[in-house]
């Protein structure tokens, strides 16, 4: 498994947090784990459940939002509110075949909190370690 992370400023002077992992599993295997209860909670937090496009999700530790895009085996995009008073931002997770494995790329757009890099690094670590 390989991983890379970086924070880069975008043209609007807000930040995008990026995290990636490559796992030795097919996109189908990664997708099934991602949408399972264990996989969703590894990514979004305890208690979180993913629904269809337009459905709300909520983590017991505060973050919540709405599923904005849901493309099986390829992509999930959710709005992200860190808490009830926080502005919305977007989290985009994409899967792509990579050799005999799958690359998982996560981008949190307009992420103004530097602690989000550690959150997403940890989330992808939890998500991918739960696949072994």
From TrEMBL:
Name of this chain's protein: Activator of Hsp90 ATPase homologue 1/2-like C-terminal domain-containing protein
InterPro entries: ASHA1/2-like_C (IPR013538), START-like_dom_sf (IPR023393)
Gene3D superfamilies (UniProt xref): 3.30.530.20
CDD domains for this protein: SRPBCC_CalC_Aha1-like
Chain ranges passing through the membrane: none
Family, similarity comment: Belongs to the AHA1 family.
Renumbered residue ranges of the record's region Disordered: 1-25, 44-66
Domain Activator of Hsp90 ATPase homologue 1/2-like C-terminal positions: 25-118
Pfam families: AHSA1
